[in-house]
Write the structure tokens for this entry.
Amino acid sequence: MATLANALQLIGSWIAPLIIFLIRRNSRFVSFHALQALLLQILHTIIVLILMVLWFTTILTTVFHQTSGKAPDFPPVFFILFPLVWLCFMGLWVGTLIIAILYAIKAGRGEWADYPVIGKLARKMLKMGPMEGHFGPTPQM
């Protein structure tokens, strides 16, 4: 189930890890991996929303500045902003893809692997110590 929580976030976004987190609360191993995947997807959604607000703000600002009586010129900001926003979207997607696959493999091996930064937050939310689970018995699947 921990492997599924990590892998299904690529298809089910935040819904799949949330469902696994809620139905497998008795397993600390599964809860830990599902919560990490859920937090990653929440962070991913927030970053996408910020990029979309930036993009639409730029579009609307450009449109309002082009309302003068002369023929509109193609705004140079699009030559800079469009590739930058596109690269951010693609980088975010590739990063999420790599993290999801890598940690799905680690969860399948039974490793208590922490996501960068998010792992500490997940441990804090589940009230786990920094090394709890690392040297314990094989996790309950």
User: Anything to note?
Assistant: The helical segments are 2-7, 9-12, 15-23, 28-65, 77-108, 118-125. The chain is about 70% helix and 0% strand.
